[in-house]
Amino acid sequence: SQSVEIGLGSILNVYRDWAKELYPKIPFPTVAWRIAHLTGRTKLLDMVDRVAEGELDGM
């Protein structure tokens, strides 16, 4: 549902900022790929990619 995606987008925005602070030398998509690989969720990966590209900013 859309509310779940908006919530996920917000969580990923927070995670993105956190990841950039902790791993400034590692590109965010690399971290995202690792997280998605561990969870095995392709939809999460799609969301992470979109957040990484800035498409979900402001949600």
TrEMBL record:
Species, as recorded: Kipferlia bialata
Coiled coil regions, renumbered to chain: none
Chromosome segregation in meiosis protein domain residues: 8-53
InterPro entries: Csm3
Name of this protein: Chromosome segregation in meiosis protein 3 domain-containing protein
A single GO BP: DNA damage response
Pfam families the record matches: Swi3
CC annotations in GO: nucleus
